[in-house]
Design goal:
alpha+beta; Beta-Lactamase; six-stranded mixed β-sheet; elongated
Length: 319
């Protein structure tokens, strides 16, 4: 029989896979509650969401529950007020315990944070005394971090943005992508204006990613595998300054990482790269019909071949 730690380790991997890329907060809470509840057979497993000065019932598994809990009230309110995980071996011994059900004997409540602020709590109840310990605390804190993972962003100009968006969407750890126009001289240009090559903008993909799943280095190394870094203002059959290659960043700490990668790539090719490396000056999203273009038009034009997309699917296995 698997130990508690082994069960949590397996469940953590499953949750990472299930929640990766999903941006809807409620949907993630619902599936995480279901995973925990059915794996461990808890009496009640669910979330309470912060709203003003109270917690409001969110997605859960189990019997009916209290719908509102005040700040500092009960185990859930205490975990919120004290900003820490609270483990209760015997709920009857907890001062101010809110008895939503007489079946509950022990409890653990874990704060859910977003950018350092508590936005919800994960509440789990058991019909047995002394169910929860430090192993539960450690793994449940890791699991709640999946609801609001750390995010970072980077902008890649890689020629026609249709194929580049499809490629990065397929990389594990990428949360979202958006195509648009970057580092030009005009405000909020249309595609038709950028197409004239008079705006200074480059077709670009805005990539939001989870650094703990895929690093900036890994994304940039993948980027160099889908472009010709020696070709100036041309990728495949697409020609013009709008199709130039470039990496644009908005964090000073990214600059040194990217500079190091560019130096490695230049040494590899033995000549100067035709790839810009600049701070992001501006980015304007392209029209809606350009977003996820190849998903909407599977037979649409793309200068990237099938092997490139297979690389995105398999990159972690190939490491």
């Amino acid at each position: 029989m698997a130990t508690k730690e082994e069960k949590y380790t397996s469940l953590l991997r499953a949750a990472q896979s299930l929640l990766s890329g999903e941006r809807d907060y409620i949907a993630k809470m619902a599936n995480l509650a279901a995973l925990l509840h059915h794996e461990f057979g808890f009496w009640w497993t669910g979330f309470y969401r912060v709203s003003g000065n109270e917690l409001i019932l969110g997605p859960f598994q189990g019997p009916l529950a209290c719908m509102h809990i005040g700040y500092g009230k009960g185990v859930c309110g205490t975990a919120w007020a004290e900003q820490r995980t609270v483990v209760v071996p015997d709920v009857e011994q907890f001062p101010g315990h809110i008895a939503c059900s007489s079946e509950s004997k022990s409890e653990i409540v874990v704060p859910v944070r977003k950018n350092g602020t508590i936005v919800a709590v994960l509440d789990i109840d058991s019909r047995e005394l002394n169910t929860f310990d430090d192993t539960d605390r450690v793994f449940l804190e890791q699991l709640t971090q999946l609801l609001h993972p750390e995010e970072a962003e980077i902008w890649f100009a890689a020629g026609c943005f249709w194929g580049a968006q499809k490629f990065f969407k397929m990389v594990e750890g990428v949360i979202s992508t958006e195509v648009g126009f970057a580092n030009g001289d005009t405000q909020d240009p249309s595609y038709q204006e950028v197409y004239t090559d008079t705006t200074g903008h480059a077709e670009c993909v805005h990539v939001v990613y989870q650094p703990d799943v895929v690093s900036l280095r890994e994304l940039t190394e993948l980027y160099f595998q889908i472009i010709d870094p020696l070709s100036l203002n041309q990728q495949g059959e697409d020609v013009g300054t709008r199709y130039r290659t470039g990496v644009y960043f908005n964090r000073t700490e990214d600059a040194e990482i990217l500079k190091e990668i560019f130096e490695e790539q230049q040494a590899k090719f033995g000549e100067n790269l035709a790839v810009e490396l600049l701070p992001l000056k501006c980015f304007y999203p392209a029209e809606e019909y350009h977003q996820d273009y190849l998903d909407k038009n599977p037979n649409g034009y793309c200068h990237l071949g099938p092997a490139v997309f297979e690389l995105a699917r398999r990159w972690r296995k190939l490491k």
